[in-house]
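Appendix B. One record, verbatim.
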Amino acid sequence: MNDLETRELRYFVAVAEELHFAHAAERLGMAQPPLSRAIRQLERRLGVPLLRRTTRQVALTPAGQALLRDARTALDAVSAAGRRAQRAGAVTPRLRLALKPDLDGGLLPRVLDLYAEDPAALPVELLLGRYGEQAQMVRDGRADVALLLSPFDDRGLDAEPLISEPFLLAVAADDPLAARSGLRLADLAHRGLPGGSPADQGVDYDAHSLTAFQEDRFGPHTSGDPGPTAGGGSDLPEILRLVELSGMVCFLPASVARRYPRPEIAYLPVHDVEPATIAVSWPRDSHSPSVAAFVRTAILAATRSGPEHLGGDELHAAARRGVRLGGHAQYVPGGDQR
């Protein structure tokens, strides 16, 4: 079998994600017949069916599911290789940091200050995106490192937890719930999140609901290389306005709630919701001294942020053992040199 081409993989991923040939062709900017021919040619070359086609639907076969996982990884790697080569050859190399505005647990200023003192540090360029985009930015090479909310899709990535903090529930100040000193998820029955998910199912659903809300409200985020602050305007004021007027509720990490005090909004603890954990993440195969320095200083900044922000045993263990990037240990100052 000849080597697969990136063009073939792009075609297949589009069809596999859309599960509709016409939609995939529109996404790719091509006509449907040549796309259908290309997928059938790919199946013949591989000797296995990738899709089950009926007059009503398209579905992935087990072989198609396996190829989709690996094709995404391969396409990300190709994109990342080109982008990282371009940045490495730049006259002034930079470290690109992906994050969601406000979603840094209050660590970002301290991390940047400590990082600037490291001999391996590069000038930092911030790539601000929406919920859930940061891991993909690192995978496809748009970013070198990310601060992001766990859990996340960690394919091809390594990560270390930095801080944990409680989620608070934002409700309208005149909502009957606002008179309570604390809540449980069962108290949120029949309440909705901004994207339409049931509030009593918890925060795991909220990241998806916020993303859906953002795309509905502001349009989908483009996949091209963003500038230093592209996609970065904080939409939380819009979300909080919706909470205030509609009877919906919204989960926010405590540090975010502190940044958005509003007389029209009350923030309440929900006792059976898992805390928010902010992590630093980077490519699993990275050998970059500047990335290692950033990870090292991010962990150090978290340990200095006070006991109320520490992420527990995982954080202390990471600080003791150092961070391993690309098979080479990059030790945290004061850590065990093992």
